Amino acid sequence: MAEFFPGIDKIKYEGPESKNPLAFKHYNADEKVGNKTMAQHLRFAVCYWHTFKGLGSDPFGPGTIIREYNKSNDPMTVAEMTMEAAFEFFTKLGVSFWCFHDRDIAPEGENLKETNERLDKIVALADRLQKQTGVKLLWGTANLFSHRRYMAGAGTNPSPAVFAYAGAQVKKALEITHALGGAGYVFWGGREGYETLLNTDMKRELDHLARFFHMAVEYKQKIGFKGQFYIEPKPKEPTKHQYDFDAAACYAFLQKYGLVDHFKMNIEANHATLAGHTFQHELEFCLANDLLGSIDANRGDPLLGWDTDQFPTDLYDCVMGMYVLLRGGGFKTGGLNFDAKVRRQSVDPEDLFHAHIGGMDTFARALKIAHRMIADQTFENFIKERYKGWDSPFGKQIEQGKATLEDLEAHTLEHGEPAVQSGRQEMLENLLNDYIR
Ligand code: XUL
Ligand code: CO
Asked: For residue 188, how far is its CA from the centre of ligand 1 (angstroms)?
């Protein structure tokens, strides 16, 4: 088999003192943090779309990146070489998982039948490579946003014919994800949103989207696919307003349409910040509502208002994310998928390694720090103390729904002005800094 990343050996852990840029300084797969190894906690996945299909194009120019595995005029040969390159990369990097869209791995044919035949061929190769390497599928998904037929959405398209095409595509994507033993399946609402309400029936579109999800749930059960379904919230881009705005909007939608038992969230850091939230906020909302599922690990640029999908290197953000995740008991079916792309000037194959090594080392540090924060109970104890009034008989009476407004009035008349207490924000921020060093 051809080697697509020559000159790069398996990436090793060399410790924090190492000066080797192609070594891990913090991620040591078999090292235990608490009762699990780093690999078991972090469940890193490489995404197919950015890492192997992204070539650095932007609205001002085409790609800048040339890859050996793209050097053929036959699209199926390219697809096969790319899959081989992908598994070489996963193995050299030492990740346990990968993620893909149907159209990343095999090009569309003349019609759905030919497209599905192409997929089957590539899936057979992926299956063989999974077995050879032990790398597993974290989740699969369908690309329902690139082809022009989906310009007005898929499950929310004004045309039932487009809705049907999208349904057929999801049917196949579920089958191949199941065949490859996927631990999950993601629905990111590609173009499920609108540009202008002058041409949009919002209520009808949302009803249709719910029908679409119900059909997917039914088919999942029919074929016996046990993987977890995830919704991936995003507030905007590509549409001006995406229906899956944030975790709270998705939760309201799932509850209204009776879907809440079938989905968890796939939280992407850069989507959280686009929604005006922090990564931590979105995860905390999921933790509070039993929605924690999986993570698309990346970051935006605070100076830019779009989805820059940069590799996660901000230790603070990653610590706060891991702090929520560990308090929620860690991943079950999910993992940390690097939905991130190298910059347009990072044209060398080795840049893919630097990018992923950086992201993995950052999360490894974040894991250790968050683990210490939880072991010490520093912040938990502070919060417990802050809310301790609710553990008093009076607080309990309210929490248990046994108090009326008259009771509140009587309490206030008897006790007068409540004592105020400091929130101690600065002290807590200083304590956090003591952990992050
Ligand atoms: C788009 C995005 C997608 C999903 C999968 O912003 O994050 O790549 O993760 O469709
Ligand atoms: Co994503």
From this structure: 6
CA 430-301-306 angle, to 5 degrees, is 135
Q: Which atom of ligand 1 is nearest to the CA of 49?
A: 8
Mutate to test the pocket of ligand 1, among 138, 188, 274 (most ligand atoms within 8 A of CB): 188
Do 232 and 266 touch, CB atoms closer than 8 A?
yes
**Could you give the residue numbers annotated as active site?**
101, 104
Q: Ligand 1 pocket: which of 141, 145, 266 to mutate (most atoms <8 Å of CB)?
A: 141
Closest CA to ligand 1's atom 3: 188
Domains identified in the chain and CATH numbers: 12-376 (3.20.20.150), 381-436 (no CATH)
Q: How many CA atoms lie within 13 A of 279 on its CB side?
A: 24
Look at the chain and count its residues: 437
Q: Which protein residue has the closest C-alpha to ligand 1 atom 2?
A: 188
* Peptide bond connecting 238 to the previous residue in cis, omega within 30 degrees of 0: yes
Report pLDDT digits (tens) over 274-301. Answer: 999 999 999 999 999 999 999 999 999 9
Q: Which residues contact 405 (CB under 8 A, 6 or more apart)?
A: none
Q: Which amino acid is at 307?
A: D
Per the structure block, which two tokens stand in for 190?
């590609």
pLDDT of 437 reads 79
Residue 79, both tokens? 């697809």
Q: How many angstroms does the Cα of residue 382 sit away from the middle of ligand 1?
A: 37
* Confidence class for position 399, pLDDT limits 50, 70, 90: very high
Angle, nearest 10°, between helix axes 202-223 and 247-256?
80
